[in-house]
């Protein structure tokens, strides 16, 4: 399963807010075997959000959009997702009923709170108020981290792929000196290889088989100055 993550917010683009939602989602998706192919930050603008959602929906199995839900002037994500699919924003009776069960009346909320894309599947916000939605294979979640995480937990089982196994080996050699051995490693084993230099070079080995990952890591330890 291939997925894209779209995080919405001007505050992310100017650096006022750290994009922890993208990191959290990528970690959870990777743990479920989902390959994240894109992480994109877009401003609070309907055309930009709609364009990216439309493009990624056509290209990937699932799109997760987080941020821009609520009653304020810059909360335009639902409008943009509706536009991406050519749908109207309409009062969602299921979302309204769920909020009523929690003690919220129409007088307590802005009218737009329960306006969702037509024919969507609403997602309850167990940690907040603004509901999320599923439109075809696009999932719209809040931007507040606690709300986003709680809502993702409700749909986590809908994301699945081939779970991979990861091992790391620290090597006390310059990264440039390891290039030939990285090539040999990829030729000998069915693995992906990443290298991350710092005080030492951390070699990251990813494989679908735990045995294959172990064999590749053992080869690195044998053929490099492992720490």
Query: If you compute it from the alpha carbons, what radius of gyration comes out, rounded to the nearest whole angstrom?
Result: 22 Å
Succession of helices and strands: EHHEHEHEHEEEEHEHEEH
End-to-end Cα distance: 35 Å
Low-confidence runs: none
The neighbouring-strand order within the major sheet is 2-1-3-8-7-6
Please provide the count of β strands: 11
- Which structural class do you get from the secondary structure elements? alpha/beta
The profile of the biggest β sheet is: 6 strands, mixed
Integer average pLDDT:
94
> Percent of residues in helical segments?
25-40%
Total count of helical runs of at least 4 residues: 8
**Envelope shape:** elongated
Instruction: Kindly estimate the percentage of residues that lie in beta strands according to DSSP.
Output: 25-35%
Give structural notes.
With 227 residues, the chain is α/β, with parallel strands linked by helices. 36% of the residues lie in helices and 25% in strands. It is built from 8 helices and 11 strands. β6 and β7 form a beta hairpin. α3 (46-59) packs across α4 (77-84). Pfam families: MoCF_biosynth.
Task: Write the SSE topology.
Layout: E1 2-8, H1 10-13, H2 20-31, E2 35-42, H3 46-59, E3 62-66, H4 77-84, E4 89-91, H5 93-101, E5 115-117, E6 121-123, E7 132-135, E8 138-141, H6 145-155, E9 165-171, H7 179-188, E10 192-197, E11 201-207, H8 210-223
Parallel strand pairs: 1-2, 1-3, 3-8
Antiparallel strand pairs: 4-5, 6-7, 7-8, 9-11, 10-11
Helix pairs in contact: 3-4
Pfam families: MoCF_biosynth
InterPro entries: CinA, MoaB/Mog-like_dom_sf, MoaB/Mog_dom
Domain MoaB/Mog: 4-162
């Amino acid at each position: 399963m291939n997925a894209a993550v779209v995080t919405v917010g001007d505050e992310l683009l100017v650096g006022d807010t750290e994009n922890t939602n993208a990191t959290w989602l990528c970690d959870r998706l990777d743990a479920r075997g989902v390959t994240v192919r894109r992480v994109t930050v877009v401003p609070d603008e309907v055309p930009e959000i709609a364009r990216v959602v439309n493009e990624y929906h056509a290209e990937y199995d699932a799109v997760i959009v987080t941020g821009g839900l609520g009653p304020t002037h810059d909360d335009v994500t639902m409008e943009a997702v509706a536009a991406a699919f050519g749908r109207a924003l309409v009062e969602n009776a299921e979302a309204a009923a769920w909020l009523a069960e929690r003690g919220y009346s129409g007088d307590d909320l802005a009218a737009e709170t329960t306006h969702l894309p037509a024919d969507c599947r609403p997602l309850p916000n167990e940690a907040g108020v603004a509901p999320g939605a599923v439109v075809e294979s696009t999932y719209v979640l809040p931007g507040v981290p606690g709300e986003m995480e709680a809502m993702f937990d409700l749909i986590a089982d809908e994301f699945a792929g081939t779970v991979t196994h990861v091992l790391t080996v620290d090597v006390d050699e310059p990264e440039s000196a390891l290039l030939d051995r990285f090539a040999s490693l990829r030729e000998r084993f069915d693995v992906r290889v990443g290298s991350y230099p710092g005080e030492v070079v951390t070699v990251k080995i990813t494989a679908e088989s735990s045995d294959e990952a172990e064999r590749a890591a053992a080869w690195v330890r044998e053929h490099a100055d492992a720490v």
